[in-house]
Amino acid sequence: MTDIIADHRVSATLTDERAARDRASRKGVVMQAPLQFRQSVRIRRLAQRSRELAISGKRRLGTEEAPLGDHACWIHIGPFPELDQMPSRVNGYEATGESWGRDYAFLVDHFPVEIHRDERIVGEIHWEMHMVRQYEWPERVKEVGRWAAELGASGYSSLHTCPDLAIGLSQGWGGILKRIKESRQKYLDLDHPEKASYLLGMQLICESVIHFIERHAEQALELAAAETDAWQKQTYLRIARCCAHIARHPPRTYYEGVQWIHFAVMMDRVVGHGNGYGRLDLYLIDLYRKTKSDGELSDEEAREYLAEMFLKLRGQFFSLGGRDAALKDATNEMSFVVLEAYDLIGDYNNLGVMWHPDIDRDFYNYACDVLARHGESIPVLVNYDLMREAELRSGIPEEDAWKVVYSGCQWFCIPGKEYCDQDVNSLNILAPMKRTLASAAAYEIGDFEGFYALFEEELTATAEALRTWKNTQYELLGSLWPEMFTSMNSHGPIERGVDMVDNRGVDYQYTSVNILGIPNVADAFHAIKRLVFEQRRYTLAEVEAAIETNWVGREPMRQRFLNEDKFGNDQDDVDAIFVRITESLARILGSLKNLRGQEFRASLFHFQGHLTPETIGATPDGRLAKEYLAHGINPQVGRATTGLLATANSIAKVDQRKFQGGPMQVELQPRFFDGKEDIWTYIRDFSEVFFRKGGIQINLNIMDLNKLRDAMQHPENPDYQNIIVRVTGYASRFICLSRAYQKEFVERMNFEGF
Amino acid sequence: MATLTCQTIEISRGTTHDGPGLRTTVFLKGCPLRCLWCQNPEGIPVAQGVWWEARKCIGCLSCVAACPTGALQAPHGELVRDPTGCTICGACVEACPSRAMALTGREWTLDALLHEVLKDKEYYQAFGGGVTVSGGEPLGQATFVAEFLRRLQKKGVHTALDTCGLAPESALTSILPYTDHVLFDIKLLDSELHQRVTGHGNDHILRNLSIVAETLRMRNAKPPSNGYRTLQLWIRTPLIPNTTATPENIGAISTYIHEHLADVVERWELCAFNSACKQKYDKLGSPWPYADYDLMDQATIDSLREVALSAGSDPDTLVVSGLTARS
């Protein structure tokens, strides 16, 4: 059984029918599955270490009081000991790339080098730039931020893009360094000291990375010299040879390729932002095929190198599948290996499989099988063609649009060419809704169309506030917080001497905006349309008063608003209002341009705004002030009563080509599959219909709610310590989440059947 | 021609037990039987009724104020219902803000119902499913159902009829041409017992079953050709404690299927007793004779399965559904 897939992969054309048949006929897949592949003792020990680090809190993201999960790339070991020696503290802080680069290089130069027994993929980090570099937005910027937040627009920029690691994989750090130096010399010759200074900062960063990798080679040699165990000695020597080479040169083998990517991602995370990292199967396929044909790579090794990397990097976003430049299926042997690596270790990861109608059937079947067996939302399933069309619609040319990659919670971008400020900007449309209610009541608006026209005006005001707010930041962002590491693996910054977050550092710089509260506003508008404008049961003034007072003393009225049709049940009227709001968002944001002259784009998702309802108050959908809001474009909890298919149909009504993603979150009870065999086929068939109907992403958890509720009470129980859930856009260990996240998760709508 | 309409209890989407694949099941109102264990009591009359769900009620008593006949009272501040005084005028339903007071079903035009069930057409195709008419007893609204299924077939949708079998032969034969799959109940083989617990003997039911069997034999004997559709038959037997779930009854049905229907039955399904419908009786304000029965346990099911097999049933066609762990 374990070698079904391994055998299959030998065929480059992916048409081994026997293996496909074998896999299709596997019966009786169960939840929380036995892993598909047998773990070696070595991998078991490494996995155990990784788990212990996670559970102990050393991988925590967020604060101790409000942890976001255990998916930090770094391992907490206390504060950076040389903090006081940081160049910006000793020599004075400057908002320049050069100063930023000096700090980065100083930090990395002081990283300890750690190589653990059993490891073949090495390198770990303990601090990131946000912890050590002092920087602050000027008061005048913060003041604009407060004004915009009042209107419902917020968000400080913090990268969230995807570098193109193919650059470094083909040029090596030495090649990149050479380009930086040449470009710096060019700008010195042309008397452009600012650009030359920026490139000096970049040069320092690149050199610190090279030295860091070289230091691993040196230490591995020392360890090898002192080692008596033959296998371990040999392994240290291999590490030494690998690191000595890839410190400057492009990787020559699959092993070196994985180790190169490990360092590249880890050193990118030193900056501390939410980047994705691209199409892992395309990055590695040439090295895989070459090493394989040289007879130097077994299937088991191929899986294990990646598994080791996943255990160390934690939940980084990589993608698989999709199409190539000729728009043919891009699935290759590596697509399988990447999923197998996850299948080998379980735990977690943020892999995304980019489906399209022509995707290799065996690969998509295997992806659904992995998702069904583990039940822990990995991989995420996304609709490649819709992402590509969304990029085309933004104006990205065909020659780049095919490169689109699922890169973060709900978003996607063109690796190395796009800086879109994904996932950090927020437009809370409950704010314009509330203003609409107040002004419509004051003007005594008598019909829904007049009411909606007012809403569009208020929405425009909020969107314009967002534009002002973002442009105020963009004026300073390139000097205040340049993204120089990611810029090294991007197309443009080195030759242009401009950081990717600065004006035209990369070609595509649309501003993406997450939208909070669309289902709540749709439900509210539908109820207002019916009860205020059609039935005339209540006045707008009464509605306004009711939500101002959290419906106190108005329970029958609240019940009326609560019991009107709700979004998520495939009902034409209310869903039409939902779609109309999304269209308004696309049009209004699309009509605004940022400092770079590129449009704003809406993303139909919000990673945690729905968990802070106290800032919102009650809403006219019958929601009480204390209740969580709807999560992204998923129906408000408790309101989807017509089943999974109806909810999927409602969500698929949105024209996703106009947006930057919007996942459907599906939580299933294991009992959903009672008596059913081959449950992966249900996931495959459901997801494919959903995608064909216009859905763009499915996050699927198969979880026993009672177990999760008990895990909240008894996190120390070993049975609960490895439960992974897709929280919002990312996956995390359930027991490592904050109470609020845990509570929200167990209260989510859970389908027990279709 | 007047617009065709039907009365439904409810529409369930994404069902996986009412025929092959993934389906939408339309439960139609009206049933000629009076099974003591009836799982859809609100579906017995064709006409709409009113029921009340305690869980949703906020105690505002708007319904009492709205009731023109005095069928709803609140002598001590709590709602008291007198179903006999209710004229189903719907005033309380309109007055209730929380939908605690509701009609037991709704009316659909043919076009609206088609629109509704076709929303999941792509899922039917992916999962090899379609639309099932159930009830109540769908043959009671045969004119509507025949046209409904005909239109669905024209749209390429697989159709299934779930019937108790008690209906005029003409109703059955008007629908069979537009049916791809029949789910037919054999509850009890002893006609006298059948009379006692359902209000009717089973002679007529078994005659209708033989019509289905004959139709199937004729249809499936034809050579496949363009647009030609075959017919499948599943028999269903509800396992009701001390009533249908006896070795005598299961053995007798098994023998009957073996002797008369072995060539036409694709599946014989034993549907384990469950008490999910108790809340429906509570909403109607009526007692349910089976309220105190436990869910079936695996041992009982296993022994009945054994009886069925030793009486001649094919193990490949016999399935048990609906077994839920006791909680």
Structure report:
Chain A is 50% helix and 8% strand. With 754 residues, chain A is α/β, with parallel strands linked by helices. In chain A, strands 4-5-6-7-14-13-17 form a seven-stranded mixed β-sheet. Chain A has a four-stranded mixed β-sheet with strand order 3-10-11-12. In chain A, α1 packs antiparallel against α2 and α19 (448-480) crosses α25. Chain A is globular. Mean pLDDT of chain A is 92; it is low at 1-34. In chain B, α9 (247-261) packs parallel to α11. Chain B is built from eleven helices and 13 strands. The longest helix of chain B has 19 residues, at 203-221. Chain B has 327 residues and is of the alpha/beta class. Chain B has two domains: 5-45 and 105-321, Alpha-Beta Barrel (TIM Barrel), CATH 3.20.20; 50-101, 2-Layer Sandwich (Alpha-Beta Plaits). The mean pLDDT of chain B is 93.
List the helices and strands and how they pair.
The complex is a heterodimer of chains A (754) and B (327).
Chain A (H helix, E strand, L loop, with lengths): L2 H7 L7 H8 L16 H15 L5 E2 L4 E3 L17 H4 L6 H13 L19 H4 L6 H13 L1 E2 L10 H25 L3 H34 L3 H17 L7 H16 L6 E4 H14 L5 H15 L3 E5 L11 H13 L4 E6 L5 H14 L5 E4 H11 L3 H4 L3 E2 L5 E2 L12 E3 L1 H13 L5 H33 L3 H5 L4 H4 L14 E6 L1 H17 L5 H9 L6 H8 L9 H19 L9 E4 L40 H8 L12 E5 L10 H14 L4 E6 L2 H9 L10 E3 L4 E3 L5 H9 L2 E2 L3
Parallel strand pairs in A: 4-5, 5-6, 6-7, 10-11, 11-12, 13-14, 13-17
Antiparallel strand pairs in A: 1-2, 3-10, 7-14, 8-9, 15-16
Helix pairs in contact in A: 1-2, 3-13, 5-9, 7-19, 8-9, 9-10, 10-11, 11-12, 11-13, 12-14, 13-14, 14-15, 15-27, 18-19, 18-23, 19-25, 22-25, 28-29
Chain B lengths: L4 E11 L7 E6 L21 E3 L9 H5 L5 E2 L6 E2 L9 H5 L5 E3 L2 E4 H9 L2 H7 L2 E6 L6 H13 L3 E6 L5 H7 L5 E5 L5 H8 L4 H19 L10 E8 L7 H15 L3 E8 L5 H7 L13 H13 L7 E4 L6
Parallel strand pairs in B: 2-8, 8-9, 9-10, 10-11, 11-12, 12-13
Antiparallel strand pairs in B: 1-2, 1-7, 3-6, 4-5
Helix pairs in contact in B: 3-5, 5-6, 9-11
